[in-house]
Automatic annotation (TrEMBL):
Organism: Rhodococcus opacus
Name recorded for this polypeptide: Uncharacterized protein
């Protein structure tokens, strides 16, 4: 298929749609693994707000499933990190060490990972 056959905006729209559908489909096995009720009723929403259905735990389950399916994990990992998941937890979900997981998915600029203040001078 030549690039001129389909516009780049149509490809971007299709990619966005695919991403949304994959995201919704990933929720189903995550719900099954977390023993959640069927989506929709009040019990499902209540389950999602409990400790077993916490955002962090749910994201770690999604990451484990997506990793096995060879999905791009950057977005879920960023969400899991924002929800408080550590690199050790993400590493465990992906069968990697904390160091391997952070090396692979940490997109934080090196300057912001530095523990020293910008104006601080090293004494050694």
């Amino acid at each position: 298929m030549g690039e001129s056959a389909v516009s780049s905006s149509a490809i971007a729209d299709a990619a966005e749609l695919l991403t949304q559908k994959a995201d919704m489909l990933l929720e189903r096995p995550a719900d099954r693994m977390m023993a959640a009720p069927a989506p929709g009723p009040r019990a499902w929403y209540a389950h999602r707000s409990t400790a077993a259905g916490s955002v962090k735990e749910r994201l770690l389950v999604r990451i484990a499933i997506a990793h096995q399916a060879h999905f791009d994990l950057f977005e879920d990992i960023a969400r899991a990190r924002a929800a408080g998941a550590g690199w050790a937890e993400i590493g465990a979900a992906t069968s990697l060490t904390a160091h391997q997981a952070s090396k692979r998915w940490d997109t934080t600029p090196a300057a912001s990972r530095c523990r020293h203040e910008i104006g601080q001078l090293a004494i050694w």
